[in-house]
């Protein structure tokens, strides 16, 4: 084992990895919003987080500092039937504190999410990431994700994205239309102001991973 790999493994072991607990929303949700918002030019509405966490809280995993209980990393996902006929997982958000990056934390969180969705009989898992986000692309492609499509001007800031897909079952690729998006057909940029009362919508912009 290389010294770099040993250092990454040690870094992931030092943290506590837990599944999101909705009963502790008052503690976790503000921390999740704060961490993810650091990578966005404008924050997601709280209703977007609740949309995912209320329905698929068991597909949200967090990395915590065991000494302070501070949130170090988080992945937020969903899993639902897709119009193509597949049971599709979707990685909506992934974030790790900048000071803790390069330690394998994001990889560990994504692997936990993949295992959870596979255990629930997912056919495939998809996500979008900016074409310029080389770190994100390397992470997902190392885990077996494939680039299925380039989405021009996908984000509200005009940047393009790659749609990545991980096939979990043989034959899934033949079912999936190329123009299909996330599980509900909505992309992350279209959750702008999701569920918000009139006048309280929030513009979302930027990468989700």
TrEMBL record:
It is found in: Cytoplasm; Nucleus. GO terms for cellular component: NatC complex; nucleus. Pfam families: Acetyltransf_1 (PF00583). It comes from the Eukaryota. Its EC number is 2.3.1.256. Residues 18-169 form the N-acetyltransferase domain. GO terms for molecular function: protein N-terminal-methionine acetyltransferase activity. It is an enzyme of class 2 (transferase). CDD domains: NAT_SF. Keywords: Acyltransferase, Cytoplasm, Nucleus, Transferase. It catalyses: N-terminal L-methionyl-L-tyrosyl-[protein] + acetyl-CoA = N-terminal N(alpha)-acetyl-L-methionyl-L-tyrosyl-[protein] + CoA + H(+); N-terminal L-methionyl-L-tryptophyl-[protein] + acetyl-CoA = N-terminal N(alpha)-acetyl-L-methionyl-L-tryptophyl-[protein] + CoA + H(+); N-terminal L-methionyl-L-isoleucyl-[protein] + acetyl-CoA = N-terminal N(alpha)-acetyl-L-methionyl-L-isoleucyl-[protein] + CoA + H(+); N-terminal L-methionyl-L-leucyl-[protein] + acetyl-CoA = N-terminal N(alpha)-acetyl-L-methionyl-L-leucyl-[protein] + CoA + H(+). Belongs to the acetyltransferase family. MAK3 subfamily. This is N-terminal methionine N(alpha)-acetyltransferase NatC. It comes from Trematosphaeria pertusa.
